Amino acid sequence: xxxxxxxxxxxxxxxxxxxxxxxxxxxxxxxxxxxxxxxxxxxxxxxxxxxxxxxxxxxxxxxxxxxxxxxxxxxxxxxxxxxxxxxxxxxxxxxxxxxxxxxxxxxxxxxxxxxxxxxxxxxxxxxxxxxxxxxxxxxxxxxxxxxxxxxxxxxxxxxxxxxxxxxxxxxxxxxxxxxxxxxxxxxxxxxxxxxxxxxxxxxxxxxxxxxxxxxxxxxxxxxxxxxxxxxxxxxxxxxxxxxxxxxxxxxxxxxxxxxxxxxxxxxxxxxxxxxxxxxxxxxxxxxxxxxxxxxxxxxxxxxxxxxxxxxxxxxxxxxxxxxxxxxxxxxxxxxxxxxxxxxxxxxxxxxxxxxxxxxxxxxxxxxxxxxxxxxxxxxxxxxxxxxxxxxxxxxxxxxxxxxxxxxxxxxxxxxxxxxxxxxxx
Length: 425
Prior knowledge:
Elements: E1 8-12, H1 13-17, E2 21-22, H2 34-50, E3 56-66, E4 69-74, H3 76-89, H4 105-117, H5 122-135, E5 136-143, H6 146-151, H7 165-175, H8 182-193, H9 197-214, H10 245-261, H11 268-278, H12 289-313, H13 324-341, H14 346-363, H15 369-377, H16 384-390, H17 393-398, H18 413-422
Parallel strand pairs: 2-4, 3-5
Antiparallel strand pairs: 1-5, 3-4
InterPro entries: DUF7834, GmrSD_N
Domain DUF7834: 185-408
Pfam family, one: GmrSD_N
C-alpha cells in the first residue's frame, strides 16, 4: 500500500519521543561521532537564541507501524542523540555507560554532550529542554508497509552517513528472517556488525557485483542501491503465492545440501568445497539466513585466496597502487574459478589468470578502471569470466590465450619475467 496523507504529519520532539518507538534489529548500531552530535546541539541552541515564531524542523523520520510499535526506519541517529540530550538536561543518568568501552560511540557522544551542557545553569537547562520538547519538530512519516518505508527512505541521514547498498541488503534479508527466533536474528546481526564496513563494501562492490556483471559480458561501473536486486535472491515465502520452476529448483538444491554434505569427511578442504557447492556465484542466493551464511563464507574464501595470492606473487599485489585494478581482476577471476572448480587444476588456473590480468599492466603504463572493466567483460578479447560461465571452467581457461607481445615495456621487466616463468610448460 502507499502512504496516506494521514501518515505524514509534523510532530513535536517531546510527543514523538513519548511514542512506542523501537530500533529494529536490521539497523546498524549508533555511529555518530561527538562532533556530529555537538553540531546538532549547536543548531538547537542557535534556533532557540533566534526566538523565531515558527517551529524549528529537524527533518523527517520514517516509521514502520508494526505490532503496536513504530520501528525507526530512518532517523535513529537523531532520535538517540535527542534522547541523550533530554537525559542529560534532566540529570537522568540511567544509561549504564560506566563499563562501556572507551571507544563506544554512545559513551563518547554522551561525555561530549554532558561536558558542553554542564556550562548551563539550572534555568538554562530547563529552558533548552522546554524549547526542544515543544518548539522543535520532525516530519513524521508512518506506513504499515515496510517496503514502502524503504522506498521513501532518504539514504542520507541528517549530517550522517548514507546507507551503503549492503546495508539495505542486510535490512531486506533480516525482514525475510521474520519467522526465525529473536536469538537467531540477533546472532546474525552481531556476526554482520563484527565485520568492518569496508570489508563488506569491498566484498560486494569489488568482487560479487563485478563477477555477476562481467560473467554476463556487461560493464560493472559501480555497485549502487539500484543494483541490490541481483542479491535479493529467492524468498521461500513468495509473496505472489507461488514459486517459479527455476526457484523451486534452487530451493530444493539448498534443502538437499545438508544430506549430501553428511557423506563428506570433515576437513578444511572439504568444508570449503561444501560452501562453494552451497553458494554458487551463478545461482541466486536464498533470502534470509542463507544470505548471511553466504556472505560469511565468501569473506572467508576471499581472505584465503588473497593470502595465497600474496604468497604466490607478493611483489605484485594490490598494496601497490599501480597494480590495484589488475590485482582486483586477478582475485575476482580466481574467486570465480575456485567457486566452480575448487582446487582442481588450481595452479594452472592461478598462473593463467594472473598472466591474463597482469598482461594489461605490461601493455599500459597506466591502468584505469575503464581498461580493466573492458578487459573483464571481453570487449576486445576473450574474457575468462564469460568463458567460465558458458563453458566448463578448466576447458575455458585452456581457450584463454595470454601473449606478451614484444617489445616489452621497460617499466615492468620484473613482471614480464615472472609471467614468462610461471606460464612456461
